[in-house]
Prior knowledge:
single chain, mainly alpha, 5 helices, globular, binds zinc ion, Anit_sigma_mycothiol_RsrA, Znf_put
Amino acid sequence: MTWxxxxxxxxxxxxxxxxREALDHLAELLDHAMAEPDAEVVRAHIETCEPxxxxxxxxxxxxxxxxxxxxxxxPDELRxxxxxxxxxxxxx
Length: 92
Ligand SMILES: [Zn+2]
């Protein structure tokens, strides 16, 4: 296995910082709770960043499932189970 410097997820500080910020604001963004200039920055990053786009997709699915289950807020355990199920389905 060849190690490629700078290609690992934690090896690029610029990208991971942007991603961390986008993921930090993901819930706010989906709640439409973010103020516009900031929301636009995060949205623009997510649209051009595959891992963040995927994370946003999963988050939206979770919200949809939770809403469908008529819960205003999913318990952490249920939420984690849904997320891991979605993740497994995507990989397989
Ligand atoms: Zn990203």
